[in-house]
Amino acid sequence: MAKMDFLGEELDALKEKKLYRPLRVLEGEQKSRVVINGKSVITLSSNNYLGLTTHPKLRGAAKEAIDKYGVGSGSVRTIAGTMAIHEELEDKLAGFKHTEAALVLQSGFTANMGVIGSITDEGDMIISDELNHASIIDGIRLSKASRKVYPHKDMAGLKKALEESKGARRILIITDGVFSMDGDIAPLPAIVELAEKYGAITMVDDAHSSGVLGRNGRGSVDHFSLHGRVDIQVGTLSKALGALGGYVAGSRNLRDLLIHKARPFLFSTSHPPSVAATCIAALDVLQEEPQLVERLWDNARYFKEGLKKLGFNTGASETPITPVIAGSGALAMRLSDRLFAEGVFAQGIGYPTVPENKSRVRTIVTASHTKDELDFCLNAFEKVGKELGII
Ligand SMILES: *Cc1c(COP(=O)(O)O)cnc(C)c1O
After folding, report:
1. What is the mean pLDDT of residues 226-237?
2. How many other β-carbons are positioned within 10 Å of the β-carbon of residue 291?
3. Quick one: which atom of ligand 1 is closest to the CA of 47?
4. Of all atoms in ligand 1, which is nearest to the CA of residue 205?
């Protein structure tokens, strides 16, 4: 039908700009070695930091919950879809985070959507780091509050924005804890200090810090010993925690208000009980097996050092996310494609996600990569990096 022709035209335009990406399909489990489109490769592209997607305790918990409670929750949380196991997870999360309360939403994305819209309105000001995640940006778009964006991690820029916001009813500062494209950590102590001075509310998105930073992977607030000084901690249960979901940790009043106002919470069905059970098991594993977080950091240091020694530009990374900056978008995609041919899956990322001249492949090592696997990857990087003139 002619009225739908625009679909093909838009797709053609993407292909022309080399932005068209077919999905890569995994044929088995999400582990350090995966089968993608029939080819066995070592993946450096998953957020499965601790290898929990296939952990026996998590698998077991999911199966047991299915036998006990079935496969669906049957309703949104606010009508009939709150099961005891949902609240058990939230109590456990609050304990883990050292906050009064926690609320679980369908995903990290909807958690950001739900929180930002619920606590800001006309007359308020939201101040956001320029490299914050898309779900924060979209959450801000849905709010009627005014907004300012400060240059990445620039505390003088944040201070200036705070100065300019003095007329606002409420000020909310939002930052990623760990930034997903560069792997650098937010200067949370400085942000908190400024926020306290200006009476601003602080919110940190720990999607890439939960299970990674802090004692037992408690996140960025624990990493910087800022307990009680960050008002809202958002995060995901779908990266290091291996399953699915988003959470908000903070005061009891925050939780109560979100239950009444957060639109994804009010209008979208809650998790199947097996998902809640899996997340509970994940939190148990974080407590019982701290060696997983240690191994993650061991591997991250080893791999990052290896890349640097080979002469690659790994940017400002301080975490298991290590970008390998190639230069142009075309070169980054070529690097990714050649690595794949050599048996290593590292996603190429270019404009508009990152500036064109900082196009890169992004690598994420996990606790479950063996040293042999990391050496294999480093050898592939060396071979392909020389071939393409990057090193
Ligand atoms: C991945 C991510 C999210 C979204 O989490 P999901 O659970 O996948 O929806 C939100 N914020 C940041 C910073 C992220 O990296």
Report:
1. 98
2. 10
3. 1
4. 13
Is 239 annotated in the active site? yes
pLDDT digits (tens, 9 = 90+) for 175-219: 999 999 999 999 999 999 999 999 999 999 999 999 999 999 999
Known catalytic residue at 17: no
Q: Could you tell me if 360 and 348 are in contact, meaning their C-beta atoms sit under 8 angstroms apart?
A: yes
195: CB partners within 8 A, 6+ apart? 173, 201, 202
Report the predicted TM-score, pTM, of the whole model to 2 decimal places. Answer: 0.96
Buried b (16+ CB within 10 A) or exposed e, 320-331: bbbbbbbbebeb
What's the order of all strands across the beta sheet hosting 359-364? Answer: 321-327, 359-364, 347-349
Q: How far is CA 106 from CA 226, 256, 280, 366, in A?
A: 27, 17, 15, 24
Around ligand 1, the residues with Cβ closer than 6 Å are: 107-109, 112, 133, 135, 176, 180, 205, 207-208, 236, 238, 246
C-alpha 390 to ligand 1 mean position (Å): 31
